[in-house]
Amino acid sequence: MQLKSLRDMSVTGRQVIVRADFNVPLRDGKVSDPSRILAALPTLEYLRNQQCRIVIITHFGKAKGKVDPAFSLRPAFEVLAERLPGVQFASEVPGTPEAIARSQKVRQGDITLFENLRFHPGEQANDPAFAADLAKMGDCYVNEAFSECHRSVASLGQLAGLLPAAAGFQLEKEVKYLDRILQAPARPMVGIIGGAKISTKLPVIRALLEHVDYLLLGGALANTILKAQGVAVGKSLVEESMVEAVKDLTLTTNKLRIPVDVVIAHSLEPDAPEQTVAVGNVPDDQLILDIGPETVELYKLILQQAATVVWNGPMGYFELPQFAKGTDEVAKFVAGLSATTVVGGGETLDAVNALGLGSNITFASTGGGAMLKFLEGKPLPGIVPLLQNA
Ligand code: ADP
Ligand code: MG
């Protein structure tokens, strides 16, 4: 998959709209994880060095089509301003006449971050008229919002179709690593899928089974598969409506692996005492909250041989330390491999970063949902217009 690259677009001195993803987590009004903002810096610095007039647009939070100060981009702006001195903030809502007028005042080498795209109803309605108004804010377009590319919103697919468009450096990297997993991975390739819900991850599990040499499962989603196999799972988190749909995920090939032992407890209380049992020995009044040590050892033996690893989803309820061992052990092992390691998912990266292992991963994807959709092999609406032959 070849994307139109920013390096091949003539941008010098032009007015460039950068669609970023500054939808970052906040704690007490401050950005608690700036990774997505930092990931856009190489593109912004490149454009500034090219003397571009730079207009940044992005959404933030669950704003509902009208101005809502609770979802202002100011906290994100503060982080950006620390890294890019001189960057300006425009409180005008993108696409409005006021914002278009303001965008015309941006000078060469200047960067202006505009207010939240979702303050306008046209963004999520994927309104072509809104996209046309956004297009008036610049004369070319750079997509640096991989994590939003699975959504059909005006500022992505539509806007890219209206102006000369290219992929930002981070987006280009995301696609390079994920596309290689689907097209030409170094083998053996091992997939690891965990996390909360089998319903959101079943499509990617099925798609990965076509590509990987081994697929290791953990997390709450494995409970539903165990249940479908007729194994007792006590009062574990199970998606009953999915039990039928996963019955065919059997272990008759040795590609798919599910836990052989699990860590259980009576409840999710912080001081719940835990216990390790073999799969099949979970009492009715207990929940599965992590993979057990034997499973960890089995998974390590498989990972040991890997030339490529792709991982999304924690192995257990890692928010409590007594159920974090499976996730932590897998994270440490993956980080220590010389294989190409690609890791994504909000909680998965939280777990990896909490161990200080972020820099030991070959590539951390900024896109949780977008990464899953990409690996499912679906065309992403934000990326289709950036394809070389589009
Ligand atoms: P990511 O954001 O990395 O894609 P998910 O959102 O799919 O991951 O899932 C993460 C959540 O799954 C975590 O909050 C974790 O506590 C939860 N989880 C994982 N395993 C279990 C389990 N056995 N029981 C309950 N919750 C679990
Ligand atoms: Mg999550």
- Number of helical runs? 14
Please, what is the CATH homologous superfamily of the largest domain? Phosphoglycerate kinase, N-terminal domain
CATH architecture of the largest domain: 3-Layer(aba) Sandwich
Helix content: 25-40%
Strand coverage percent: 15-25%
Which CATH class of the largest domain?
Alpha Beta
Q: Would you tell me the overall average pLDDT?
A: 96
Reported by name, the CATH topology of the largest domain is: Rossmann fold
- Rg value: 22 Å
Explain this structure:
The protein is α/β, with parallel strands linked by helices. The chain has 2 domains: 6-172 and 380-386, Rossmann fold (3-Layer(aba) Sandwich), CATH 3.40.50.1260; 187-338, Rossmann fold. It contains 14 helices and 17 strands. The strands form 4 sheets. It has a 6-stranded parallel β-sheet, sandwiched between helices. Strands 11-10-9-15-16-17 form a 6-stranded parallel β-sheet, with helices on both faces. Helix 13 links the parallel strand 16 and strand 17. Helix 11 (293-304) packs parallel to helix 12. It starts with 14 loop residues before the first strand and ends in a 15-residue tail after the last helix. The structure holds adenosine-5'-diphosphate and magnesium ion. Magnesium ion (MG) binds at residues 345-347, 368. Magnesium ion binds next to helix 13.
